[in-house]
Amino acid sequence: MGLRLPPPDRLTPMFRQWRAAKLQHPDALLLFRMGDFYELFFEDAVVAAPILDIALTTRGKGTACEAPMCGVPHHAVDSYVARLVEAGHRVAICEQVEDPRQAKGMVRREVVRVVSPGTFADPGRTAPGDEVYLASVHFRDGAPGGAALVELSTGSMMLAELRRPDDLADLIDRHGVRELLLPQSAADRGVPALPPGGARPLLTPLPDELFDPAGAADRVRRALAVASLAGLGCPDDHPALPPAAAALEHLRATQRVKPAHLDRFRVLRPERTLLVDAATRRNLELVCNLRDGGRRNTLLSVLDRTKTPMGARTLKGYLLEPSTDIEEIRRRQAIVSGLFDRSDRRRALRDALAGVRDLERLLGRASLGRATPADLAALRGSLERLPAVREALSEIDVPAVQRLAERVDSLEDLAGELASALADEPSGAPGEGRVIREGYDAELDEARELARGGRRLIAAVEERERRRTGISSLKVRYNKVFGYFIEVSKANLAKVPADYERRQTIATGERFVTPEIRDLERRILEAEERLGGREKELFDRLVEAVVGRAGRIRESAAAVAEADALASLAEVAHTEGYTRPLVDGEDRIEIEAGRHPVVENLLGAGGFVPNDTRLDSERRLLIVTGPNMGGKSTYLRQVALIVLMAQIGSFVPARSARIGVCDRIFCRVGASDNLAGGESTFMVEMLETANILHNATPRSLVILDEIGRGTATWDGMAIAWAVVEKLHDDPRLQPKALFATHYHELTDLATLLPRLANVHIAAREHGHEIVLLHRVEPGPSDRSYGIQVARLAGLPDDVVRRAREILERLTEEKTSAAEAIERAAGRRPSPQLPLFGAPTQDPAEREVLEELRRTDPDDLSPREAHALLAKLSDRLRRGPVP
Asked: Which residues have a Cβ under 8 Å from the Cβ of 487 and sit 6 or more positions away?
C-alpha cells in the first residue's frame, strides 16, 4: 500500500504524527485516535470505507494536506476492527497515550497494538469452541522443517516437526490457521504445500534473522520464562523452535506486551496420534459438514454437550487428533466410565460447570492488558464454582477421576480477593467510581464520599440562590469547557445580584459564577480526579493479581476443560445407549450391532438398523455391494467413526466393540472437484486414492466408496480391480479396508484373494417395487436396483419404463450397449475385407477372428487359454439385438 503524501515540511503537525506511525506499519490500516473517534486517512480510508460501509469524506479540502478520510467511534472500535480483519487486513491501533488536558501542544500518540487475522478473536464473532491460530514455519533446504502454532486469546501453543511434504498443509487445514509467519526469503520464493482451495491464511513475511536456529532455544526459554525446555518434552534442537522464537518475538512486538499466559507449549507427536488427513476429515464430517461447512449434522454436533468454551475446544481437539496411546485412551475411558456410572455426580459436575466462563480467554485478556471490570467479575464467578467442580469429581471412586479432581485448583485466594474488591455488578470503565466495592479501600471511599457530597452541596447552593434571588428557574449546571456555573434566563437578568460574575452569554440568557461556586468546583473536581485515579490503580492491581497466578489458572482451566469434555462424552453415552469398547493392540476390528452416530441421531430412537463388522488378519478387505440408497456409504462411515470415537476415549454406538488401535484412517467417498485448481472430479478421486496407496500401512483403516466411477466403465472397473489387488497383496499396505462398489464383477475376486470377503446390503423386490432393508449380509449382491431407486427419486414414468426395457434387453441377450444402440437404430457396422482368407459378413465372427490372429497361444497359461476360449465362444453364440 503506497503512501502518497505531501513532503513532511508541507504537512500539519497532526499529519506528521500520523505519517510517523504509518511508516512504522506500512502494511496495516492505521486507526488514528482523535478524541472520540478513530480516523483513517489517505489510501487507508479509501480501502476501509467500503468494507466498513461508512462515508468517505475529505479533510483539509483545498489545502496542501487534503486527505480522504473516514472514522469510527472509539466505543465501537472492536466491531469495526473485526470487519477489517475478516476482510484479510492488518490493523494498527494508534492511541492517545497522554491526557489531552495535561498535554503541552500535540497529544502524544503511539501504536499500542497490531491486530491481524491470526491474533484477533472477537467474542462476538468467534464461536466459544473455536480457536484462532497463528502459525509460524521454518524452512530447511527449501522445504518446511518445523512449525509453531499459537492461539493468542487462550495461550495455547503447539510445536510440530514437518516430516512429509503435505504436513504443513494438513496442519493449516486441521487447525484452521488464519495467518502464517514465514521468513522473507521463503515468501520471495513462494510458499509450497499450502492447502488446496478453501480459505488460505494471510502470509506475513518476517526478517530471516528471527528464524535463525542459532540460539532459538534460548530465545524461547527467555520468552516463556522457563529454565529448561526438557520439562516441556522438547529437545533444544527441535526444528519447531526457530519458528516458535519468531512467533513469540512477533507477538511481543505487535501486542506491545509480554503475553504472560504464553508460558508453555505442547509438542505434537505424530506417532501418538491417529492421523486423519483433510480429505478424510471432510468426508467423515467430523467437525464441518459437506453441505455448508457448518457444525450441523457432524460428529462434533452429536458429541458436544459441553458446558464451557474450554470443554468445547478440548472435545474438538480430541476429534481432530485422536490418540494411538492405549494407556491415554484407557485413562479417558476410565473417567468417562466413572461419570457414566454415577449419574448423580455427573449431573452435579455439569451443573457446577455451567457457571464457569472461559477461564483461558479471561486470563488471556488480563495478560494482554485488555481486561475489563466485566471480565474480572466473570472470572470471580467462575472461580467461585471451582470448589463444586472439584467436589463432584472427588466423590467418584475411580483413580483417574481422583487425579483429575486434584488438578482443579480452586484458587480461593484469588477468588477471595476479587470478591472483596469488586462491586457486585461492576459497570463502566475503571475510574468512573462503579468498579471497586465500597469499604474495600479507605482512600477511595473518602474521595467517593466527597464527590457525592459535592454534588449535594451544589444542589444546596442552587436551592439557596433561588431563594436569595427570587429566580425560581435558576440552575447550577456543568460542562467541560466552563465547569460549574449559574444559568439565568433573559427574563430574570434584572434580578441578578451584584456579586454574580458574568461568564458567558447564550441565546436564552446568561451564565455566571461566584466565589462559592469556584471553590466547590475545585473541591469536587479534585475529589473526582482522586476517585478516578485511585479506582484505576486498584483495578490494575487486581489485574496484576490475576496475571501473577497465570500458571495456576491455566492448569485449573485445563483440568476443567478435560472434565467437561469427558463428562459430555459420558452424557451422550448415557442418553444414546453407547457402550465402552475394548481398545487394545490387536490387529482387528470387531463391532457387534454398530450404528452411525449422526444418522441415528437424525432418525431418532429405533430408526437405525445396526450391523456387524469383522476385520482381522484373515479377513482384511470387505467388498460391499448393494442397491443405491441401501446404506453402503453409511455402513462404511460408521465403521470409521466408531474406530475414531474409540480412540478419543469415547463410548461407541454398538452393542459391543473391540478395536485394535489404528495409526491412520483414510476415507475416500463421494464426488467433488477442485475447479479452481484445475482438477476434475475424477482427478480429485484419483489424487485421494493415490494418497491412500502411498501412505496406508497394515495398521490403517481404509474406507473406499465407488472408486473408478468418474471415468469410462471399463477404465473405472480396471482401476478399481487394480486398487483392490494392491490393497490386498502389497505387504507394505494390507490395511483393514472396506470397499463399496457397483462393479459386481469385482466380487469374483473373493475366489482369488484369500483375505477378501463379500458382504452386501440386503434389499427385497416385489414386482417393480424395492424394499431397502439396510441390513448387511454375507456374500455379494447381484444387482444394484438402480432403476427402482430412480423411480423412488421421481424420474418420469416413461423414462423408468424405457430404462427397464433396455436393461432387460442388455441382460437377457448379453449384448453390449454399443451393439444394442446400433441395432436399435437399424445400423450395422460396415464390413472390412480381411487381410487373409475370405471375407465374413458376421461382425461377431470378424471380431473373433481378429482376436485369434492377435493371440499367441505360447504366451497363454492353461487358465488364460480356457478363459479366452470361453469368451470367444460366448461371443459367437450371441444373437442379433432386434
From this structure: 474, 475, 476, 477, 506, 509, 510, 511, 512
